[in-house]
Amino acid sequence: MKAFASVLYRTTILSIFLLMFFSSVQAQALKNHPDTYFLEAEGFSEKGGWFVDQQYMDQLGSPVLLAHGFGNPVADASSKIVFAKKGKYNLFVRTRNWVAPWTTQYAPGKFQLIIDGKTNPVVFGTVGNPWNWQKGSPILIEKDGQESTVVLHDLTGFDGRVDAICFSADPGFTPPNDKASLSVLRKQALNLPDTIPSASVKPFDLVVVGGGIAGICSAMSAARYGLQVALVQDRPVLGGNTSTEIRVHLCGRINLDPYPNLGNLTWLMGPHAGGNGREAAHYKDQQRLDLVKAEKTLHLFTNFHVNKADVKREGAIQKITAVYGQNIETGQILKFEGSLFTDCTGDGTLGYLAGADWRMGRESRAETGEDLAPEKGDKLTMGASIQWNTIADEKDTSFPVLPWAIQFNEKTIRPMIHGDWDWETGMNRDQINDIEWIRDNGLRAAYGHWSYMKNKIKDPVWKEKVKNLKFGWVSCVAGKRESRRLMGDVVLQEQHLVNAIPFNDASVTTTWGIDLHYPEPQNAKDFPGEEFRSHAPTKHIKPYPIPYRCLYSRNINNLMMAGRQISVTHVALGSTRVMRTCGMMGEVVGMAAAVCKDHNCLPRDVYISHLDELKEKMKKGIAPPTPLIKYSILPDWLSNPGENLALKAKIKVSSTLENSEYNSKYINDGKYDMETNQYRWVSKKGYDSGTHWVEFNFDQPTEINAFHAVSGMVGKQGALSNFIFQAKKDGAYVDIPETDVSENQAHRIAMKFPAVKTTSLRLLTHDHTARLWEVELFNIK
To answer: Where are the alpha helices (DSSP H) in 192-278?
Structure first.
């Protein structure tokens, strides 16, 4: 352990030194072109309101800066550059007109360069479908050694983007546009060393690539067993799809048999309440960061994108020895050596780089025998969500007419003020190589919809509703569901889930139904080739434990995986992909890594020779029990509670979901069928109506001291997580002691409380959406 005592110190000092170095030297003359300077946009010392976007870094060769202001110009970015010699310099900016794949008549992403206070007359971001060098007007440097300030000035707030800026005093020089030649240029400009520095003094026990919920849980689980762990994340925040950058709530149940302590660590990730695309504070970025930083043997590297792997082959054994991550702001590259590696990237990036077996798209029915598989295999995947929300202003607001966005009319508009998970695009595109197009199509949909709502909506109710609303947030990071899947010794299929086929290495329990997303038929008809809405037919399953053998690669022997890229078919992924389930996978992978270290073995050996040891760790868990346990066990009195007094009540509810059959009459109809979603009451969604409630009104004072509530969705979560019962007293509702429920996920919950006698009882919840099969009320003697 002494050798590792300096690891964190070494990595921290190294990172800080290199960050300071690269931040202070934003542009250097090129070795082969001494009068030419190359400035990476993402390396600007002051980013202003510009956003570092690495989503298509592998395709483009570099991250970019994005002016994502959803219609409001963002604050300027700026950087310094020192010109060795005075003279005239040609100016080139690598950019594109991002709507050119759809129309070249318009260019919404316009911006300018201001150099030493002088605005270059050329407006950039106006030409080119692929990325290209747009030439500006030459600039004049008046003295040798002049330090100049370069400013990126956004003109629209509509996603102008910049890869790099080049100044050249050589009149014959034009920067190359192909990726390979540009790579050489970038290396010279960043003065990258030929020998890549290591991130640690000696190899880590485990290198986890990807900082979503699966990656965090994998890294923390292993660290709690004493392993030295590197967690490498290509964004500045942790959490992946549930971070403030994407804002998807956590789904999937935890703390279930056969290992009810799996999920204890996942529970700490937050948020516990539901709701997509909500305010930023809801998504607990800082909470996750604090948890990671508290682990003494866990070394966090944010903003590092892994784009290369070293693999050593010895006969039938193939092992990763190191991966390389490039900082998305400074260009700095670090080498991460390790004994074990875990792919938690979502895209299966590490597995792909290492040569792991993988699949993408839908397998055919002939190949898998799955009922939900298509007759012929294809490349269709579930899509990526671009969510958005609106907020109220003190005064009426405006939003421009946007002829370059997706165009709506009275027939195609579906009025709304919030874009949820089903604003999903790219299902017929490549979710990796076409991700810029996919994200941009989602932006065009959100912008086009809101433009119609603000300028052309005719319904007077909606016109009044939106007049003081404006965009509060629009995601520019795509929330993906599916891309590559890495193959393990077991490939989980629909038959396993539906028929509950047992495996001796059962581990994480998946509870989500087989929830497969497809282009919504009417949306596909209205917007062919530009679909941006999805529907999700779901096949119910009972909780099913996933085999451990789905969590390691079948051909890269020291590679494990946790998250949506585990070893499953497209159909089975419909169940396993939700984030709490993925978090539990991370817990198990961390446990398996600990077993590997203890026995100096590989992940497959854990199954062959040490499975009992892994089972014991899964039984114990890696974090204290969650508060969920107390709600999941139904009390004995519920088997004979006496008369259901709720049957005598008249029901009144705060709201009911529009255009649905989820009627409040089902709340006290005396039955609940948890095998179907049909016979439930469902409220409006929280961002439309706020607090939800159900009133039980009696003809005469009635004494009540217990309740049984049945809530949620078939094959999914959706149970009421935070609620309380209130009784009416002197014309006002007051809280009933011992009925306050928080952080619940059990579909059925029953509690006794001090008796109240009242003519009106109310269930009050602040959950995003309320879903109830039944509420029963009793007076237990």
So the answer is: 213-224, 264-267
